[in-house]
Amino acid sequence: MERFLPRFDPRKTGLAVLAPVVALVVAAALSSVVLVIAGHSPALAFQRMWEYGTEPAQVVNILNKASGYFLSALAVAIGFRMNLFNIGVDGQYRIAAMAAAVVGATLTLPKPLHILVIVAVAVVVGALWAGIAGLLKVYRGVSEVISTIMLNFIGGAIVAWAVTPQVFAVLENNVVRTKTIPESGWFPGFTWSGIPAGGSQTVVFGEIYGFIVISGLVGVLYWFVLSRTRFGFDLRATGSSEPAAVASGVDVKRMVLTSMLLSGAVAGLVGMPILLGAAHSFGSQDFPSGIGFTGIAIALLGRNNPVGIAFASILWGFLDVSNQILDIESIPKEIVTIMQGAVVLAVVVAYEIVRRIGVATEQRRVMSTENAAPPAVPPATATADTGGER
Amino acid sequence: MSEHPERSTTAAGPATTVPAVELNGITKRFPGVVANSDVTLKVARGTVHAIVGENGAGKSTLMKILYGMQRPDEGTIEVDGSPVTFHTPADAIKAGIGMVHQHFKLADNLTVLENVVLGSEPRRGWRLDIEGARKKIVEISDRYGLDVDPDPLVEDLGVGERQRVEILKVLYRGARTLILDEPTAVLVPQEVDELFDALQELKAEGLTVIFISHKLDEVLKVADEITVIRRGTTVRTVLPSEVTPRKLAELMVGSELPSPQTSESTVTDRAVLEVKGLTVRDREGRPVVDDVTLTIHAGEVLGIAGVEGNGQAELVEAIMGIRPAEGSVVLEGRDLAGVPTRERRTAGVAFVPEDRIRQGLLLESPLWENRMLGHQTSPPNARGPLVNRRGARADTERIVRDYDVRTPSIDVTASALSGGNQQKLIVGREMSGNPRLLLAAHPTRGVDVGAQAAIWDHLRRARAEGLAVLLISADLDELIGLSDSLKVILRGRLVADADPATVTPEDLGSAMTGAAATGGKPGTADDTDGATDAEGSDV
User: Fold this and answer.
1) What is d(CA B391, CA B378) in angstroms, rounded to the nearest whole number?
2) What pTM was estimated for this model as a whole?
3) How far is B69 from chain A (nearest CA, A)?
4) Which residue among A3, A236, A379 places its CB closest to the CB of B409?
5) ipTM (interface predicted TM)
6) Is B4 in the same domain as B92?
């Protein structure tokens, strides 16, 4: 019977994978055009980027970058799933990382506890900072887009103020940073060593942040909460239709606040891989502003899906790292920024096209069932027969 | 198997001239489906030609083909005797065919004039020729008696006026043939009359109107000829004088019609819902539901008759806890003041909303997730704080089976279903889990006749088992047939009681508009012994 078609629709899945691939090809093509206009060879540029980006040492860099991007995109995605635009991940992550670094440096605690406290501080501060926007939306109807952008500036100013020698920071080697966290608050990483291509001696390629594991776990948690829990259902329902969610008994105000807090909590984690894995103190060069906005692009590209976001984060990390080589070829590395922009644009267009194709195919399938079904007999009898088990 | 439409003698208008629109052998296939097959239609110039059919019968596909939004796989279209091929609606407009959509496509914050010229702005040199446009609009308005003022903002207009603006907009573009898609769906009775007057004017001026509807009494009133579509093909073209509404409905369905009569009274003396002095205010503080008091007993269907927009939606939402209200709502002895919507639902209040797209469905979610909506905290959909996917899926299969929801699988998104099937899913969902009280707004709106009978059947069975139902419906026969007692709502107040055993749709209709004193006999709603009287239950 046609009603019991397999749940897994290969065509649908194929379309879903096709979209980002097409988008990438379009983005590459656009970048090529720009390169050609500028008088460079696209083939050479891409080849050099690929070679450089797949060197083990750079792979480490890429993964390390990706671990933060991943969290940033998850934070954005939580909001997206319920139609909230948390543009403030950037401010939330920076203020949370700063607070965590300051608290972490003042404490002396045994190892696992120390890390736990630092992470907890980051999560709480991130959540609170986002919660301001949540409260403003719930009680004053302020659009979260506006308030989170504003809070980015305020957060940035607070961070700039805090990271001065008069407040929490110290001046070391002409660089202003907060005090260094004692070693008990460092998250152990994975050292990757091996024999490089063409070499003969074992060298250390680099250290992958141990926090990448936590990032992965947050991804799993995100998936579980959203797709397997009642809370996640309520959240998604609110995102797809607020009036329907209200009628179904969802307290939307509470939902807005909760998801804003959650989004902020995850945003608070964004700075943790680098803080606990490498920097061990807060300084503006290690915690640049912009990662929150990158998260928006990655969440879009990954379609709010944790696996998709993971791939998108790695792609972004790759583009960020591999563009370094272009300078050597005297190709402007800004071409990569153009490419990233093109990816986002192309992806949005491709997803919309795929979505429409999907809807149209489905409607056709449904229509065939509706028309193919036997004419409606007055079902007084028909339903009684099919009552079945209950 | 489709019998060819036998055209009866031509109605009004010169019989010898070529038809304004002629479709021959139109067939439109979607992969695996035939949406239209061998459709043949002749519309004489200067007539109102109605096209009736159930939901999903293929009316809209046909109109999309005629308006250039879709191209037929086979068949020919002729306008004024010459064959045409439409690639886009622009081609259709050029050939003099215009469409007034069911949902208006007007910009609220522009004036009538701006809306009318939008997209085909008259120019004088580089500038907009506002004066020219105004003159033309006033001229069209006067000529066809549309009574449209070019200057107010569209947002300040009523629904009927907006519709006339839409018509004017089409005429402004030079249409000689107008397609009206379910034009009366959004209108109150007076506005319907005004529309019909306007249509007569158009006809008198030699324009042709194709009128799509499934409101049979209206079709019989306004049309010169009626073509019935069933299962994608034209079944017959008849004159209104040859048919009764019942006959027409039978042509549409292809079988005998069910009627919504309840058998015997199952009303008990146990009050399930007691509403006292309920008042809901709008933003400006005006009452939209005004001091409503009513009681529904177990096994009782209380029908609320009223023209749409008289507070029915707000009343239901207040009982659901979606809207703040003054007064008291007591469910089975429990005061629901301050009780949130979710708790009201788990206490056994089920809700079929008036606007299913907005309040009843998650359009982009699969059917089984829509099954959970509103019941996401209780079995079979939940296990503790977790979603019980397997339980929800299995129960969705049951609803699909029992309520004849036509879908290839429960994994398609709700948006893919036709309106009728969406409604069946919602009713099936809300009837699940043994509700104590059902708030049903237009439970059978948009569903085909077969499914309508099935839903009535389910309602009756649940009523016999002690369900209390608050029924809101625009279908007076449904109200009279299903209800054990009736109340009339007008401007937020319950203005009259009626006994469904004796009241006629006409009485009810005048009570709803506040025209007559009352439609029924006040006060005696509890006496329901004779609810099965045949009176007033024609289609």
Assistant:
1) 11
2) 0.73
3) 15
4) A3
5) 0.78
6) yes
